[in-house]
Amino acid sequence: MAGHSTAHPPVNGKAQSPQQWKIAAALAFAGALSPLPIPISGLHKFYLRQPVWGGVYLLLGWTGIPRIACAVEGVWFLSRSQRAVTAGDTIHESVAASEQTQAIARALRELEQLRQEGLISEQEFEQNRRTLLAKLN
Known about the structure:
By secondary structure, this protein is mostly helical. The chain has helices at residues 18-33, 43-47, 51-59, 65-116, 122-136.
């Protein structure tokens, strides 16, 4: 669909981006700390595409319950944004390590082929093999 924005997290609050969790946290804190007589708690629920919960928060806005819930959820959303960053880093490191291992395995196979063809000596083979294996550690 042309012009469709992906700025909002997916349905049910399962946002993938740490930035989206930070925005949801900011909206939750705004609902918790707003001095306005009009209840704005629940805006983060609409942002997370949970309109039923957003409506519940707005309906109960005259009580203090949504403000407390917003504060708790704001802290929770901030922790989720940090976990998303950490998980992304871990995945990136894992992929990089896997690619490095595959490259070393290819190099070892090529080295073995050179030895079998007699293009390098047994000593050169062993020296290069140890160097490659040391890169795995």
